[in-house]
Every structure is written in structure tokens, then in C-alpha cells.
User: Fold these one by one.
Assistant:
Number 1:
Amino acid sequence: MTLRYLFNIVHDSHDKDAVTREGFDSYQLSPTCSNSEKAEEQKEKKISKLLQKKDVNTLRSMGLGPLGFVNNTLRKDCWYELLKSQVHIDNTIEYMPRVDKHKDEYQVILDAERSFGGIVDQNLKSQLKRLLVELINRILRKYPMLNYYQGYHDIVCVFIMCFSWDVVEEKGLVPENDLLRDKIDMEKLTYCVEAFTLLYLRDFMMNSLDFSFEQLRVISALIKESSPEFYSVFNFDENEPLFAIGSVLTIFAHNLKPIKSGDTNLHKILFQIFDMTISLQSMHLPLIIYKNLLLQNAPEIMKQIEANSDVFENDFDLRHGVIQTVLQQKLCDESLWEEVLQITRHDSATASKKVLKRVRLNKYSTLLNTACGKPGSFKVATIIFYLNEQTKMNERYKKEKYHGVPTKSKAKALVQRLGHFLPSKYNKWSRVSLLIGIVAILYHLRTTRSLSLLLSLRYMVSTKLKDLSHMNINMRLINHIWMDPIRDILKLGHPTR
């Protein structure tokens, strides 16, 4: 079932509605036409009328089309109406016992300090950071079963920037003693963040990565269905696409920061991804987008693999390194993103049953209920039930992994598995130092039950790979990529990284 088919259903059911007919025409616009000021102005008027009528069904179709909800003034109200239709949150009800302080709040503060880097006005930046911490802590204290992960703050930043866009566009607060929270609708903002978290992000907010890796496997299965050749080259049946973890956990918010000087059009791309995800009520959509992003770059990826096949002794390192490098080069290509989103609009709205059968998803996954691509309304009590069951299942998964396995065997298996990722061209002691550092990180990751260090390791490696993006990779000439590995690893988790 394609997104266009879903739109047609809405169109047919509102055939006598002039606004909907206009919305259908707007959906049909090509990407070139949709970028015109006239098209934006026309769609703004249509969306404004739909908001007045609270026509949620037609709003969904507008969010799926080119331009999404057009601008953040309209977008914040559209998101609120859609999310309110998907779950009803009654603030007078305590859905589970609150806590005065959540165990992950220190990490929230550290991540907030690194947020909103493109904001010049220091007063505004400071207030944005405080608002970020306040919102995240409010959610975590209200639903203490949720575990914070590094990347969640990127998603919350998207909502904050959407709701405060008018203030940010004015380049600051005047006078300086103005409070940001007085200039935005805090009630709607809080509702949107809370609803989105409960409906879309539960899989990522466990105390292990198991359910997150399940979603990565869906990407592999989607690739197999769309391009068996690409799937075979990368041997995705044995190798999980770990390179996608940051994009999936943040719904591309880490890749396409909402605020970075000069990237206004990329902000629009990111907001459109959220428009489509919320309109379709689907966490399948970011996975499908990532699949399309990979396949659109497949020729260049294959070319670079062939050009550098003799550089790496480890095929896993070669494939993942090339993908990271090529995608880093392409992430700021606005035309590529427009093409990917347009392809996605004509793609399957959700992963097919055939795809899902290839992946062992926990039966309470967001992909199967609250964000499965079939718009519906859920009670918070039902979502809390899903959350409780996911938490129990997650604990069982963890116990099954280690049940009856001797400590010595665990250590040996870990060293062997890690050794698979290590460059072979360095001497024994360099490899040992790298192993020690990684083992230390994994131990700390397990004891703190935080994703921050793992993602930091991923970002450290991707940053080094990004250095190669200025050339035809030419990895033969780069001998220092993995030199002194323990130095960088020991920096992970440092508050100022």
C-alpha cells in the first residue's frame, strides 16, 4: 500500500469537500512546483482552513505531500492536532507512580549542553537548553520505566525548535529578561513530546539495544525486498546495518540538525520527515526513508567498494566504512533528500508482512501497534501495558543471552567478536590497547544502562571516516585513522566532548 493510495482513500471519502479536492491537487504537485512561493502560499491557506475545521484526516494527507505542513507556524498546530487524535493524555490521571528524580538526569544535562550549537544569542541558547532539560526530565519522571538514550534529546530539540521558531527567527529575546517559555505554547509542546515519546519511541527507551537492533534488521529486510543484489553484496543476512543506528534512533535529527547556519532548506527536510512520520503514524517510515537513501547512493557505494577492496583485509570494515563516508558526503545534498522523500511517497507505507516475517520483532513493538502505519487512537493505559510488557520481555532477552554461559566463555566470545572489527595492519600491542578500551566502554555501558557511550563510539568513528570524504576515499594514504586508538576511546563520555 503506497502513500498515494492512502491519500486517495482520504480524497474519495471527502469528495464533496472543496478544501480536500484542493489538497489532492497540492499533493499531485511535482517537487519543482512545490518549491515555488505560490505553491507554499496556496498550501498554507488550505492547511489553515483544515486546522479551523479540525479536519484531521485531510491534515494527514497534507502532511504526506510535498512541503509537508509548509512552515513551523502551521506545523506546530498540525502536529498537536494529529498527536492528540492518536492518544488522549489526561494530566489529572497518574498513569504510573512518578519519581522525584530519574536515574538518567545527569546524562540529560550533559547532552543538553551540546545542543543548539547554531544559536548565536547566548541568552536564547541558555533558555533553549533549560527548556530541553525540563521537558525530558518531566517525561522521565512521569514515566520512570522509560530509559533515556543519547539521541532522544535530538528528537525533543526538533519539537522545541518547531514551537519556538518565530522567536529564533527574530535572533533572540528582546528585552533580555524575556522568558522563552512565555512566548511559546508550553501546554501543546509538552503534549506533543509526551505523545510522540509514548507512541513512537518506546522500542528505543529500554535498558538494552535489543529492540533498537530489531528495527535495524527491518532495514536489511527492506533492502532485500527492493534490491537483492545490494543486499547480497553487503551480506546483510549476517551483518546488521549498525551504521544506521544514529539515524534511526534520532529519526535523522542528528544528521539534519534543526539549527545550523545556512542550512535552512535542510531544516525543512527534517521537519518534513517528522510531518510524514506523524501523519502516517508510522515508525516504518524512517526505516523506509533510510533504505531509499542507501539505494539512491548504491552506485557510488559500489564504486567506492571496488576502488578500495584491496585496502581493507576485513570486508565488514570496508563496507561499513564506505557507506559511512559516502552518506556523510551526501547528507547535505538537498536535491538528494527531495528525491528520496518523493520516492518514499510512492513507496510502501509500511514494511510488508513478508518483510516483517524475516525479522524477529517483539510483539509489543511500536512497529506493530501504536506506530504501525495505520492511523488510530490509543488510550494511555493501553500504551502503559505495552511498555510494561516490553520491559519484561527486554529483561528476559538479557537473561537468555547470558543464562548458563561461563564467564570465561563470555570473555573469549567477546574478544573474538571484537577482534573481527579491528584493523589487522597494526601490531599486536596496538590491537590489544584498542580491545581494552572497547571492553572498558562496553562494561561501563552495561553497568550504567546508557546508550550514550555506544553512540559516542559510533560518532567518533564516523567523524574519523568523515575526514576521508574530501577525496576518493584514498585510504591507502591515511595511516593515522586508527593510530593511538586508546586516546580517543578514553575521551568518550567526557562532558566536553
Number 2:
Amino acid sequence: MLIEDIFMDSFRNSAIESVDIKETAIGIVEALNPLQIRVDGLHLDYSELYVNYDLLEHTETFKTLTGTVGDRTTTISNGSITFNGKLSVGDRVAVRETTDGRYYISGKVKGGI
């Protein structure tokens, strides 16, 4: 075995032992207001969660929005649009623990499709 191969094996083994990748768990939405998620026997409330912004009701502003209604194209300038929240009670969500002991909800998931 070449010295380069020995070095690469040693480096690879050290890297594998030093990386701690947390597993993603599947949680269930138990309540919406306030948000509560159950995962691995834990009941997490909103204060213990980071939630992907796109899953929550939110408003965004825009400079120009162009759309088609029927056969007419319409343009709206300097407005805002409100997006509905995407979570419902019973939804499955992807959950990961963060370094500060909270949990990150990255998105909804479906299984068995």
C-alpha cells in the first residue's frame, strides 16, 4: 500500500468519526394555534421550533405582478399577497434537532405514495 493510500484511509476514517449528522425524524402536527408537533414521544410547542417560513401564513410584497384571468392579462404594481399556512392537524413534517436544542421543521412529507 502506498503512503498516499494510507494517508487517505486515515483521513477518511477521521472524517467519518468526527462528523455527527443528526437524523431527520417524522413528526405529526397536533395543533395549529399555537403550533404543536409530536415527534419521537416529545410534544414540542412553538417556542421549541424553527419553522420553514413558507409553511406559515405570511405576506410578501411585490413591485409588479402580472397574471391572466380568463383571456385578459392584468398587471398590478406595488402590492402585497398573503400566502395561507400550509400545515394542517395530522400532517407529517420533517423534523431535525438544531445545535441549540430546538427543532427545525423543514417541510411537509407524505409516505406510501
